[in-house]
Fold:
Amino acid sequence: MAELSTLGYTGESKSSYASLKDRVQQFQLDYGLPPTGLADRITRDYINRALLKRRIVFDAMHYLRVPYVWGGQSPSGFDCSGFVYYMLKKHNIPVNRTTSQIMFTWGEPVERSKLQEGDLVFFRTTKQKPVSHVGIYLGDHRFISATASEGIAIDSLKSSYWGQRYVGARRVY
Structure:
């Protein structure tokens, strides 16, 4: 199952059934599925979602340094929710153009310790709104978003700025 290797689940021997079963089981544990070690329909659906999220994360990197534009939702300029909207729509995830505050109601909440690449991360950057910024989680405590100062940029959830403004995360797909 090459898809598991693409997602970083590598075994000692790709031809070994025991190794494949162990990799499937580890994937299932990581994604909150019963750890049967069998690649059933539900597990394959989760694998396909993880692969889609991986593609979105890789694709998002192509937009680094695209300028910030208030209300922007195209490669000529993005705001934070416009960037997330553009990336999801580009990868055929049906969403409406809206604000980060509304996006915070989508999908399922995710604990910070269980973030997976492609999850949406949310922040409070103003006192007027409980949620005012959104980005796409990249893994390793990093996320990508449209910032007024740098355009599309990668930042750390552990930074002094973003760390104290983190509100939560949602798994939309």
Remarks:
- The radius of gyration is 17 Å.
- Helices lie at 2-6, 17-30, 41-60, 80-90, 100-103, 160-163.
- The first helix runs from residue 2 to 6.
